[in-house]
Amino acid sequence: MICVIDSCKNSAKDEDHELCPTHLNIWIANPSVLPSTIRIQNSTKYTNLVEIPKGSPSFLEVEKKFMKDWVKPNANGVRIEAIYNIYLHPEIVQNYKNYRAQVEDRGKYKAKGLYEGNEMILYHGTDHLCSIIFDTDKQSLLCKGTNCGGCGILMNGFDMAKEKPKIYPLQVGQNNQGRSFQRLGQGLYFTPYSSKAHYYGHGGQKVCPNDSSRTCRIMFMSKIVVGNPWQPHCVSQDARGPPEGFDSTWGKKGNCPHGSSVLVYEEYAIYRHDACLPVRYIAYSYTSTVE
Q: Which stretch is the leader sequence (predicted)?
């Protein structure tokens, strides 16, 4: 794997966010000087977005997974427009790694052939009203609007506590489709299926800037520490976490009936922000959708 930074040809590792040792050290020491496509400042902290070149091995790998995971026939002509690596502040990333190590110590998942902490790559769709990848004059600005779930994720990760004060009243990860129903409780929701996450970005859709016949949305691809997941058989809207001994809640296909409706596509609910790390920011388009 080659470093994702443009013009750098040094070797890199996925676990190091596709940065070579030199750029990894730059990011850890001073995120404000990491070469980036888009740099967002939040107080004294920075988030860097680095675009993955179209046609590169990394782009093709993410594109292949995204399309393979689009299993529900709810959109036509789906196409990825851009993919960015997300570099949150190193402190946020380290908190995630620390929690992952704690979960691994308890569950010994690597010995079972799983990833550390039973880490999974899952999708999160949300209303993202900002146009930072489409408007080159405002790429460092976020709208911080009450209905823009993407703002808080790009600046703070999946930290719900950051979303509760007046400046960020929206609770990241909750359903933004005007529904109060939370099948697995008050958590952050993720899914293995890009087609399912697609639904939750409805409020942030925009006309594609280079083709007015297409519509664009944003989706986050995230690393999630699933650990030991609880599998409930009924709806638990008021849950604030899984039962003792579990790390997350797994909404398995066919479980948790609500009236005559059961889960058709699985989902996970996570109840702590340091178990979630957004790693890819995906802009995609489609010609039509049914929701």
A: none
Tell whether 238 is covered by a domain: yes
The model's pTM is: 0.89
Domain carrying residue 128: 51-289
Helices (H), 20-82: 21-29, 57-68
CATH number, domain of 211, equals: 3.90.228.10
C-alpha torsion sign, points 14, 18, 20, 21: negative
16-49 pLDDT per residue, tens: 788 999 999 999 999 989 998 888 777 677 889 8
3-state helix, strand, coil in the chain (%, to 5): 25, 25, 45
Q: Burial letters for 31-42: b for 16+ Cβ neighbours within 10 Å, e otherwise?
A: beebebbbbbeb
Name the token pair of 12: 């890199």
The count of structural domains within the chain is: 1
Per-residue tokens: 87: 């570099």
